[in-house]
Amino acid sequence: MLDPAARPATGLAVRCTRALLSPWSRFSLLVAVLLGAAATMLLLEPQRLLAADWPARLSGSTGAVLLFGAAYGVCTVAFVPRPVLNIAAGALFGTQAGLAAALAGTVLGAGVSFALGRVLGQDALRTLLRGRFLKAADGQLSRHGFRSMLALRLFPGVPFAAANYCAAVSRMGYPAFLGATGLGSVPNTAAYVVAGSEATSPTSPAFLAAMGFIVLTGIGGAVVVWRRRHRLTAE
Q1: DSSP for 102-158, written as a single string
Q2: pLDDT digits (tens, 9 = 90+) for 116-140
C-alpha cells in the first residue's frame, strides 16, 4: 500500500507545478525576461560592439556575416534599435552582405520574440482583449495575418518589438508571421544598410536616395497607422 503521508506531498507538488505553469506565472516570466534583456542592453550597450568595436579581422568574412546576423537577432530581442544595427551592417559588410546579415537577424529576432510571446504571454494577455480597438486589431491579425503583418513591416509606424508581441498574442500562424516579416522588412532595412555603406560619401546619389526613402516611408507609415487606428476604432 502507498504511504498515506506521501499523498499530501504529491498533492502539494501538483498544485505548485500548476501554479508555476499557469498563464500569469508564464507571463510574469516573460516580463522578467524582457526587463532583464532591456537592462542588459542599457548597461552593456551591445549596439556599440556591433557599430564601432567589431573586430576588423572578422569584417567581410562569411563567418563574420553569420555571427553578426546572430548577434543582431539577440540585440533586437533586447530592444536595441534596428536602424542602428542596419547602419552598422552596411558600414561593416557593404550593401549585399550587410543586407543579408540584417535580414537574417531581423527574422531571427522576430521569431524569438514571437515564440516567447506565444508560449509565455498569449494565454494571459488574451483575457485582456476587451477594448474595441484591441479586439479589432486582434481580429485583423488573426484573420489576415500575413497581409496585416506585411503592411506593418512595410510601413515603419509600429515599433518592431510591439508588432512581434501583438502578433504573438493573436492567433496568427508562425509561418505567416516569419514570411511577412522577412518580405516586408526588405525595403526599409535595405535603405538603412545602403545609408550605412555609403556613410563616408553623404553626397552620393545612393546615400541621398536611401535617406529620402527613409524619411518618406516614416511619414507615410505614421499617416497609415493613424488612419488605420481610427478605422479599427470605428469598426
Answers
A1: HHHHHHHHHHHHHHHIIIIIHHHHGGGTTSHHHHHHHHHHHHSHHHHHHHHHHSTTS
A2: 888 887 666 666 555 555 566 667 7
